[in-house]
Each structure stands twice: as structure tokens, then as C-alpha cells.
Amino acid sequence: MKTLSQRLDEYLALRRAMGFDLSFDERVLRKFVNYGDEIGEHLISTALFLDWKENYGSADDNTWSHRLGMVRRFAFWLAEHDGQTEIPSSQLVAGRYRRRVPYIYAPKQIADIVAEAGRLPSPYGLRAALWQTLFGLIAVTGMRVNEALSLNQHDVDLNRAVLVVRNSKNGGDRQLPFNKDTANRLASYAHLRDRLIEHQTQRFFIKEDGEPAGDCGARYNFAQVSRNVGLRSPQSFNRHGHGPRIHDLRHSFAVHTILDWFRDGRDIECEMYKLSTYLGHSEPKHTFWYIEAVPELMQLAAARAEQRVLEGAS
């Protein structure tokens, strides 16, 4: 009989072949199946989920509702292969997953994060160059973390100053232009990478051991940098702690871009559709959400609407 871990490998391989980005889901599900393997369970059941929930750690109901959804999707697939699989009820957790209010970094905070990443210690300096370049790239392009980590070397065209993002969250490809300063920083990292690493994968962002940089490493190093600049409190046992996330760099890019449009007097609705395409959103409503989520943008939008009403009445 296959273990839950082996079944998960099959499930993830199938969904990735369909174009899904499952990096976050995999981290959660891997811990779930590892727990099941450790206690000798080969099947998903309501009892297993509740036992895992009891022993996994503290989190609010909204978070557990989100985790339950991941387990249920895995269980639905597994039930097609093993009729003894029990699909946990969606009512096991009372909470409902809500989109988290973004933390918007001030420009100085972003500069501090990028500068501090450049001081991360390593024998040959590649660790500092890697994470400084990655964090800076996300901040100036609004890419998702895993989109940046998934870039291959041929996806980064330094001559044309264009990135090609392939198989993004919504399954499509898109091109992102970048400026000369970003091109210089990407080229500087690539030069150091090629000088230090003889045998490489095709990924653009590579660690000192020659392996591709991963999601867990990105979040660990971002947490360390955030503590160093005072955005997170010190933590014991290498815990990440709580505070602004690396994904908030993407939110900050979007919000600062929209703020600039308001200040420049641009047609916000027209520009938002462009930004939606640039960010790789499946629907424009996911981009317009920033106006509702950020008080300053909401105030600017309300003031713009009020001005239009006054102009129409005059």
C-alpha cells in the first residue's frame, strides 16, 4: 500500500502538469501527510485531519479553513484511486478564509530591506547577491515570489530588458519590461553566479550549492532581513515570526503605482486594466481590490468621485 507521501507526490505532479502553482499548498499538505505517515495512517479521514489540527500548532479558524480546503481537494482526488478515502466535511472548521489586508512598505523600508539583504553573510557573497537581487526585482516588478524563483536564464533578456513569466498562477505567459538600473543589478548577480558556480541548473536564481533558490529559502532570508531592519521582532530557534511578508512587496508595487496615477490625474479605470494584465491577475476585480483594501487609495477614489459629481452639477 502506498504511503500518503507517495500519493501526494502523484497528486502534485498531476496538478503541476495542468499548470497550477502549488508551492504553498505543497508546504501545508506535506506536513499533513508526514504527520499521517508518522502515526501509520495510509488513508485520509476526518479523524486524521482533526488529530493533525490538534497537534500541528496554533492558528485562527480562517487559516484552518484554508488548510482544510487544501486537504479536501487532495482527498477528492485520492478518493478516485482508493474508495476507503474519507473526505472531511467543509463544516469541520467554522471560519471562512478572508484575503489578508496588505502591508504597504514605504519606499525607505523597501530600500532598507534590499540594502540589508546585501549584507547577508556567506563565504563568497552569492547569498547576499541572490536575495538582494530577488527582493529588489519583486519590489520593482510586482512579480509573485514563485514567478521570480521560476525564471530560467533564457527568460531574462538583459539586452531587451524584458522578463518572460511562464505558466503563472493563471496558466498564461506574460512579458515584463524593466529599467536600466534593474538590468544592471540582474547582470551583476548573473556575472557573480556564473563565476562561482560551474555546474548550474537553467534557473536564473541559484544558490551557492548550485541548486535553484526555493520558496522556503526566500521566506527564511526575508524574515531574517526583516528582523534586522526592525520590521519583525527577534525570534528564537530560527522561527520566522510575524510581520510584513515578502508577498507584500508585490502589494506595495501595485499600491504605489496606483497612488502615482491618482497624483498624475490619470484615468484610473483605464490604467487599472493595464495593471491587471501586468500583474497577471485573472480578473480586473483582483486589481481593483487594492483600492478597497488601502485607506489612502479609498480616500483618493472617493475624492475623485466627489469631484466628478461637482463638475457634473456645475
Automatic annotation (TrEMBL):
Record keyword DNA-binding present: yes
SUPFAM superfamilies named among the record's database cross-references: DNA breaking-rejoining enzymes
A Pfam family of this chain: Phage_integrase
Keywords assigned: DNA integration, DNA recombination, DNA-binding, Plasmid
Residues in Tyr recombinase domain copies: 100-304
Transmembrane stretches, start-end: none
Domain of life: Bacteria
BP GO annotations: DNA integration; DNA recombination
An annotated Gene Ontology molecular function: DNA binding
PANTHER family: INTEGRASE_RECOMBINASE PROTEIN MJ0367-RELATED (PTHR30349:SF41), PHAGE INTEGRASE-RELATED (PTHR30349)
Stated family: Belongs to the 'phage' integrase family.
Protein's name in the database: Tyrosine-type recombinase/integrase
Taxonomic source organism: Yoonia rhodophyticola
